[in-house]
From TrEMBL:
Keyword Nucleotide-binding among record annotations: yes
Segments forming domain ABC transporter: 7-244
Keywords: ATP-binding, Nucleotide-binding, Transport
Protein's recorded name: ATP-binding cassette domain-containing protein
GO molecular function terms noted in the UniProt entry: ATP binding; ATP hydrolysis activity
Ligase recorded as keyword: no
InterPro entries attached to this UniProt entry: AAA+_ATPase, ABC_transporter-like_ATP-bd, ABC_transporter-like_CS, P-loop_NTPase
Organism expressing this protein natively: Flavobacterium franklandianum
Domain of life: Bacteria
Length: 244
């Protein structure tokens, strides 16, 4: 018997004024899977994951996470589900006035109440070691390179031991070598923490390395689905344009 997906989105619609961004999205994410979503700017990639966690309210459709219909949940129940979801924002979204240690402490205390100081320290060091940046614990965001900020953002996502991680353009703005390092980290996190993930990206090297399965969005609808190898062989000119 096939296991139920961790995430299931059905017939999802979202408009902003007259701009129809999502036009009936259907997708699933299986347990332990990295699902990559590709698409041109404005195709609805980021809006999809924002609807998923309730940052944006969908106009129509169903969103199930862990078998819970999240579009009907009250705020407390939605927050409970969010506590199992790590989010790596495109720009890192670190608090500039806080050190790395303080950024991670803030996230940890927000998700887990009544932790002793020594427990917090252990969790912070473990998360930083997982991304290879234990030495940066007392640095300020302004002292970090773009790649280091991405790593710290990933540490902040995994420190709550999430079952799901949502990556929004995890390699954007990085050079080829650093992008590859971030992609390798995504795979390492998937293996170590047994996470299920959605990865929004324009970076085909990242998609190839991290994605167990890839969806391509076109004008708010899923245009193609498959593995990297399958989609690379597509006869569809538009799909093929991603691989040139």
């Amino acid at each position: 018997m096939k296991a139920k997906p961790i995430i299931a989105i059905s017939n999802l619609y979202k408009s902003f004024g007259k701009n129809e961004v999502l036009k009936g999205i259907n997708l699933t994410v299986n347990d332990g899977e990295n699902l990559v979503i590709l698409g041109r700017s404005g195709s609805g990639k980021s809006v999809t994951i924002k609807c998923l966690v309730g940052l944006v309210q969908a106009d129509k459709g169903k969103i199930q996470i862990f078998d819970e219909e999240v579009t009907t949940l009250n705020n407390d129940d939605l927050n409970y589900i969010r506590m199992s979801i790590g989010f790596m924002f495109q720009n890192g979204a670190l608090y500039d006035s806080m050190s790395v240690r303080q950024n991670l402490t803030f996230t940890l205390k927000h998700h887990t109440q009544n932790l002793a100081e020594e427990e917090i320290e252990i969790k912070i060091i473990e998360a930083l070691e997982s991304v290879g940046l234990a030495e940066a614990i007392d640095k300020m965001p302004a002292e970090l390179s773009g790649g280091m900020k991405k790593r710290i953002a990933l540490a902040r996502a995994i420190i709550i031991k999430p079952k799901i991680i949502l990556y929004d353009e995890p390699t954007s703005g990085l050079d080829t070598i650093t992008s590859r390092e971030i992609s390798e980290l995504i795979l390492s996190v998937q293996k170590k923490y047994k996470t299920s993930s959605i990865i929004i990206t324009h970076d085909m090297a990242c998609a190839k390395m991290t994605g167990n399965r890839i969806l391509i969005l076109k004008e708010g609808q899923i245009n193609a689905e498959g593995t990297y190898v399958e989609l690379e062989k597509s006869k569809d000119e538009w799909v093929h344009s991603f691989f040139i």
